[in-house]
Write a structure and sequence with these properties.
The complex is a heterodimer of chains A (62) and B (434).
Chain A (H helix, E strand, L loop, with lengths): L5 H17 L4 H34 L2
Helix pairs in contact in A: 1-2
Chain B lengths: L6 H28 L9 H13 L4 E12 L5 E7 L6 E7 H7 L8 E11 L4 E12 L1 H18 L16 E6 L4 H13 L4 E6 L7 H14 L3 E8 L13 H9 L4 E5 L8 H4 L2 E2 L3 H8 L3 H35 L1 H4 L2 H43 L2 H5 L4 E3 L17 E5 L4 E5 L4
Parallel strand pairs in B: 3-5, 6-7, 6-8, 8-9, 9-10
Antiparallel strand pairs in B: 1-2, 1-4, 2-3, 4-5, 11-12, 12-13
Helix pairs in contact in B: 5-9, 6-7
Classes of the chains: A mainly alpha (62), B alpha/beta (434).
């Protein structure tokens, strides 16, 4: 599985949303874009959750 | 140019000199040439004479030093002085007449600087040596300060004061070397203030004289010891306030050069804020007082802890802030209809399909209705064109065997079979004649 950085995932997500909003894609393409978008959103969320958890861990050991 | 008349006279002088030298050599160097052996040693008087002659060769010199001791023996006119070098552990005995002293240095006291015109003298009676002075001048404070000014210029020109040559103090030194007077206020000020700021601070203290003739060599030795100690990361030279003369060792050239030569950074903390001995210019850092030196040599623990916790707080706030911002961006992207309501993607298309289907349905219906109407019209027209009505009026249609309509008698021959269509049916007939 590809390992995207937060910024990569976020940038790609923005692109996916833009493409979907622009319309014009076939249903099959649209579905594939949407699935990609969902995946990217969850990658971003994982990064943010991880960062928050690390921050909390570092703060609680003080 | 040679003047012939001068020649005989000059020869005579030369000859006289040579003769005198020979005579002197005979008197002084004969025992040397003879060499002493265990079997034939020199007597004391001969050796004493030899030493006396050697010492006398130096002749008259001008010498400067610091008076370490004066002894005026009652009942004699001879005064004994111990003259010490202010920068080194070296001294000489000077003897002079009371009158000489009264003339050039009437208020001479221990610690003062003098310049003496003297010649080495050997006393065969006790085998001792001293300098016999026939003129002594005390060096006044004004002259001392003028000389310091001169020395300052010299050292500055040599680059001893260069800012570029100054080393930075370590942020937190391992061991701090401290050179100061034993149990002095300066020592206590440095130790107490440094410990208050940084309780774990380590010191290596070397106590020395901080004024008088022994101060400079002792301080230089202490510097060497501390500079050679790899654990010592910085050296403080500390001394409390005092008179201009008391602080003179800290303007000494040898000490300035020793400080300059140290590989370890040196902090000078001499006297009060207003005292500026030359060492202040040479030292890597000049502290105005011993307390100030303590402040410069170690960081304040409480202050550092406060700064660290402050930095930590800012760090955490910054990261939390960024995470929150990114979460907002992500939430925004996710709440866009294309992502939040993916069913719309299908529903829209389903609606399109339904609309098309209905359009197709409608279109087909119209066409069927139109076709129906057309059919009716066609049938009506068909019916209108039908010959049935004519036949009902009594007309008949005659067709030959092939089905062709017979319109003229010439179309048929006698004997041909004919079909006669009537309104109510048909008849079979035969042509009987034309």
């Amino acid at each position: 599985m590809e390992e995207l950085s937060y910024e990569q995932a976020r940038a790609e997500l923005a692109g996916v949303v833009e493409k979907l909003e622009a319309g014009g894609a076939t249903l099959e393409e649209s579905l594939a874009l949407w699935e990609r978008g969902e995946h990217l959103a969850s990658v971003c969320q994982r990064w943010l959750d991880g960062a928050r958890a690390r921050l909390d861990a570092a703060t609680s050991t003080d | 140019m040679v003047r012939p008349s001068a020649r005989p006279a000059r020869r005579a002088v030369i000859r006289a000199t040579v003769v005198r030298r020979r005579y002197a050599d005979a008197a002084m160097t004969t025992p040397e040439k003879k060499k002493s052996t265990a079997e034939e040693p020199f007597p004391v008087r001969v050796v004493s004479q030899m030493i006396s002659a050697w010492i006398a060769r130096l002749g008259w010199v001008w010498v400067e030093g610091q008076v370490a001791q004066i002894s005026r023996r009652p009942g004699t006119s001879t005064v004994f002085l111990t003259l010490r070098d202010p920068s080194a552990e070296m001294s000489l005995t000077v003897t002079t007449g009371r009158d000489v002293l009264d003339l050039g240095a009437p208020q001479l006291s221990e610690g003062a600087r003098i310049v003496a015109h003297a010649k080495p003298d050997f006393f065969p009676g006790r085998g001792t040596f001293s300098l016999r002075a026939d003129e002594i001048r005390q060096v006044g404070l004004g002259e001392l300060l003028a000389r310091l000014e001169q020395l300052k210029k010299l050292l500055a020109a040599e680059g001893l004061f260069d800012k570029a040559r100054k080393r930075r103090l370590p942020f937190l030194p391992g061991t701090i070397g401290l050179v100061t007077g034993r149990a002095s206020a300066a020592e206590r000020d440095v130790l107490d203030n440094a410990r208050r700021r940084w309780p774990a601070v380590k010191f290596r203290v070397v106590n020395t004289a901080v004024q008088g003739p022994t101060a400079v060599p002792q301080i230089i030795d202490a510097l060497k010891v501390l500079d050679a100690d790899p654990a010592v990361d910085v050296i403080i030279l500390a001394r409390g306030g005092g008179g201009v003369e008391d602080l003179l060792p800290f303007s000494d050239e040898a000490l300035c050069r020793a400080v300059f030569g140290c590989r370890t950074p040196v902090i000078s903390a001499i006297g009060h804020e207003t005292d500026v001995p030359l060492i202040d210019f040479v030292a890597d850092v000049r502290a105005s007082t011993p307390t100030d030196a303590a402040k410069r040599v170690v960081p304040d623990l409480a202050e550092e802890l406060r700064l660290i916790s402050q930095a930590r707080g800012r760090l955490q706030r910054a990261v939390r802030h960024q995470i929150a911002r990114e979460q907002q961006r992500l939430d925004a992207a996710r709440s866009r209809p294309v992502l939040a309501n993916p069913q719309a993607m299908v529903a829209q298309r389903a609606a399109d399909v339904e609309a098309l289907r209905q359009r197709a349905h409608r279109t087909l219906g119209h066409r069927l209705a139109r076709a129906d109407t057309e059919l009716h019209h066609t049938v009506a027209r068909l019916r209108a064109l039908s010959p049935a009505a004519t036949l009902r009026r009594g007309y008949a249609i005659v067709q030959d065997a092939a089905g062709a309509v017979v319109r003229a008698p010439a179309d048929v021959a006698a004997g041909d079979a004919l079909r006669v269509r009537l309104a109510e049916g048909e008849l079979a007939a035969k042509v009987v004649g034309t």
